[in-house]
Amino acid sequence: MNKIFEVPLYAYDRSPDQDAPAPVRHKVAVIGAGPVGLAAAIDLAQQGIEVVVLDDNDKVSFGSRAICFAKRPLEILDRLGCGQPMVDKGVQWNLGKVFFDDRQVYDFNLLPEEGHARPAFINLQQYYFEEYMVNRVRELQEQGAPIEIRGRNKVEAIGTHPDHVKLEVETPEGSYTLEADWLIACDGAGSPTRRMLGKDFVGRVFEDNFLIADVIMDADFPTERWFWFDPPFNKGQSALLHKQPDGVWRIDLQLGWDIDKEREKRPENVIPRLKAMLGEDVQFELEWVSIYTFQCRRMEQFRHGRVIFAGDAAHQVSPFGARGANSGLQDTDNLIWKLRLVMEGKAPESLLDSYDMERVHGADENILNSSRSTDFITPKSEMSRILRDAVLDLSEHHEFARPLVNSGRLSVPCTYDGSPLNSADALDGPARTRPGSPCPDAPLGDEFLLPKLADKFTLLTIDADAPDLIEEDGVEVTRLALSVKDDATLALKERYLGDNESGVYLIRPDQHVAARRPSFDEPQIRAAIRRATGKE
Amino acid sequence: MDDLILTPNIDGADDFYAELLANHEGLDKADSDVLNARLVLVLANHIGNRAILTQALAAAALKKEV
Ligand SMILES: Cc1cc2nc3c(=O)[nH]c(=O)nc-3n(C[C@H](O)[C@H](O)[C@H](O)COP(=O)(O)OP(=O)(O)OC[C@H]3O[C@@H](n4cnc5c(N)ncnc54)[C@H](O)[C@@H]3O)c2cc1C
């Protein structure tokens, strides 16, 4: 049977652009049909902006790669119309165990907060993730949305101009030229776009290798995240076991620095390692094996004129903490509404510089977290190993040491503190909903808050009056009128009001708070809208 | 009787741990050992309370009765 990642999902098909007498101009071109390029394209098309996606391949991600998807990206996918199939197929988990040497030192429960539509995490193979996004593209196409994916279209050269970009595209039938008003480069960690533009990608390489294997087995290991430090079956190194759908299990085995990658990857060398870990009697089949050296690095700037970088092309993290694809989706979530306003002439081009500022901040937070995890898993010196082992020993006996154990701080969205788009906080409310924060979900009877926020700006009023529609210099803001009574669990009150009787929130299209105050004040809200769209 | 705190008590535990490692960076093992010894004495003086220090010594030795 063919695996999903072996079947062409967007096969090459000759485009009329290839026979046009002069290069055809598109609104937006996206390079790369990975998770991030697909998210960018769906977001644009859904809002009526014409987009063409070019990918040098015609299939989803080879092997699984990403498996852990966090709540915030699932909420973004809900807005993009493809969150449900992911959650339906994905494995939900909250429990984990930590092992040190030959024993379990403790177990944990993530205890996700109640009152959110989406779980804290799901595990899902990256190929399913991409497949469901491609399905969403097909659905949009059937509805007539202006979106196209061109498989086996490899971008070979880029010309940048003040008001457009020009691309040389190689296909199985020769090359052609295409133009676009804007280019979003989502061409992965090895980004050819970055190279062609001569931009740096600096950071740290971790001197270590990890064998990543997906195995299919019929085993009764529970749906938990198990992490081993220095286990008997992989002395001096670490290991991870985590469940995916279809009886597929992710196994990470740390191998150290001085190894022969090609040799270690051969099944005759991989299988004995896995048997030592899983037990001699466990029957399994290898689905995919790869060896990685991890890096943490980013571009200095994500925007270069009409070329905007997103996802792994802009920043790369080690996978401990599942921050790669998860943060890439937050990039396009941040970018697309800004690009749309700029393209529609409703905001100055400088609004796009806030994408750079906010997402560089996000990337730095992710790089910091995943570097720390990597340093804990692979101590850099004898003393850091002694301290690390002391933390693990103590964690078995004393709860205080457990927060210091770091096998990956799982992805959470960042708050854009200090962003020029934020207005000064005028509500003495909960810290988690201060300007710059991603809106936390809250239950509303049988429904939830986040799906009620549109692709546009929203004015959320809780027990406060305000006009139903405000238009400020071309930017529309629609009101969502709620009352604390709409949520009997009082989560809405606790998350958005605290001790206040009422509150008014200006919420950006990416569901981050731009401004908040106790009641509606027209001049102040209008100023906040201008500020949030780069006009103040 | 005073009790040693053995539940999480450091705000920003990851920041603290990173700072601890950063202070050891670039030191050889012998110098790192000396730094740790000084750190123990500085922290012990800050705690001051003899009963707590005795409990802390037992906790560090992973004694069951603590
Ligand atoms: C072992 C491992 C585990 C991981 N686990 C997680 C996890 O649990 N959670 C998580 O969030 N992330 C995880 N990641 C990271 C995640 O896989 C990446 O962050 C994610 O794939 C990045 O998506 P992207 O769309 O930016 O780039 P990619 O997925 O790399 O896609 C880039 C696309 O660009 C195309 N392309 C490249 N050059 C050209 C060209 N010249 N012309 C046309 N097309 C081109 C490629 O064919 C490809 O389709 C993991 C990664 C690894 C390796």
UniProtKB/TrEMBL annotation, chain A:
Record-annotated FAD-binding domain positions: 27-364
Keywords assigned by UniProt, alphabetized: FAD, Flavoprotein, Oxidoreductase
EC assignment: 1.14.13.127
Protein name: 3-(3-hydroxy-phenyl)propionate/3-hydroxycinnamic acid hydroxylase
Gene of this entry: mhpA
NCBIfam families for the chain: PRK08132.1
InterPro entries for the chain: FAD-bd, FAD/NAD-bd_sf, RIFMO-like
Database matches in SUPFAM superfamilies: FAD/NAD(P)-binding domain (SSF51905)
GO molecular function: 3-(3-hydroxyphenyl)propionate hydroxylase activity; FAD binding
Domain of life: Bacteria
Cofactor(s) it depends on: FAD
Gene3D superfamilies xrefs: 3.30.70.2450, 3.40.30.120, FAD/NAD(P)-binding domain
Enzyme class: oxidoreductase
Natural source organism: Falsiruegeria mediterranea M17
From TrEMBL, chain B:
Protein name as it appears in the record: DUF2783 domain-containing protein
Pfam family, one: DUF2783
Organism expressing this protein natively: Falsiruegeria mediterranea M17
Domain of life where this protein originates: Bacteria
